Amino acid sequence: MKKVNSASAALALRCRCWAAGVVVGVGLAIAAFTFHSPVLAQPAAAQELAVIPPDKDTDLKFYRTDGTIQEGVAALEHMTSDANLVVWVAGNQFFAMDEVIGAFQKAYPGVTVGLITLPPGLILSAIEGGGWRYNGREYRCRPDIYASVNLGHLQRLKTAGLMLKYEIYMHNELQMMVAKGNPKRIAGIDDLVRNDVRTSLPNPVNEGIMQFYARKILERHGIWTQIANGRECASCQTTERNWFTAVHHRETPERIRDDKSDVGIVWKTEVMQALRQGAQVEAVELPASDSLRDEVSYAVGALENGRHRENADNYLAFLATPAAQDAYAKFGFVKARPDELTLKPIN
Q: How many CB atoms lie within 10 A of CB 8?
């Protein structure tokens, strides 16, 4: 699929996504016309754009065909204009995606890719709301590909008529991240409510790791109420000792480093990545009943109204190849079985 010609006004008008700028002349014309039109004067229901947390440029990327990568606002602008494929995936894959997208572009040269790696529930809100708000600007768009850590998010898209098929493309498991040497001698889930332990936990609002996995473990252990303290929020202090993150895979290693938290529930692959980066942390492994290693499955599908369906289909086919599976496995993700890598209807 060829790149979008940004100089073509006709094609630009057909695009579903655009970056909202300040165009004073157009705004005044619309305002004047609306004033004289009883139909247009009726207030339209505003779409609820999802808000990208501050300083998340490294979770917003645009991959050029020459191997260079742009980040932040520049990447968002490409996603709303000339990217040949737009992929939004659960943020805990951020450290693997340069390798994965690089392998995809090697298999499909000439395809530029826009990528967002943020909590899957937050991404889902952006899809449902029609785009993002970041650094004071609006970016109204949807992806071609969406991937989450659980089929539940994709089922919501099916209900909305936005996605019909999915595949499972890899697996993971829960661990607890602590400071190197484990100074608090944290051994299991029940230690999260000790009086001397400060926790950094994924938020229950839009972080899939908490929504689908960690919360039910905390509830089974009978400690969820004590941790949440009746609050379901992001970037918030629920008790004197617990913090709910906005983006746990970025914040929890930093909070442990800065001695703001002693422990956090994370993915196994996130501990591995922190160690690769030299972080002074280590993992507390959990039994299968708490790590959910036999349950965690990452699901992906193409949006029915995506602008680049051919490239989206090629990306889904690519995920089933050894090149893609090896790229993820290099970072500790568990490969999916061949039968899981086949597209199936979302039930």
A: 10
pTM: 0.81
DSSP calls for 218-257: HHHTT-HHHHHTT---SSEE-SSSEEE-SSHHHHHHHHHH
Strand partners, 133: 51, 138
CA–CA distance, 29 with 36 (Å, rounded to integer): 11
Report how far residue 88's alpha carbon sits from residue 60's, in angstroms, rounded to the nearest whole number: 9
Rounded-to-integer distance, Cα 27 and Cα 277, Å? 48
Amino acid sitting at position 12: A
Q: Residue 49's CB: how many other CB atoms inside 10 A?
A: 18
Angle between helices 268-276 and 248-257 (to 10 degrees): 50
pLDDT digits (tens, 9 = 90+) for 97-153: 999 999 999 999 999 999 999 999 999 999 999 999 999 999 999 999 999 999 999
> Residue 41 is encoded by which pair of tokens?
């004067």
Sketch out the chain's domains with CATH numbers. 49-171+298-345 (3.40.190.10), 174-291 (3.40.190.10)
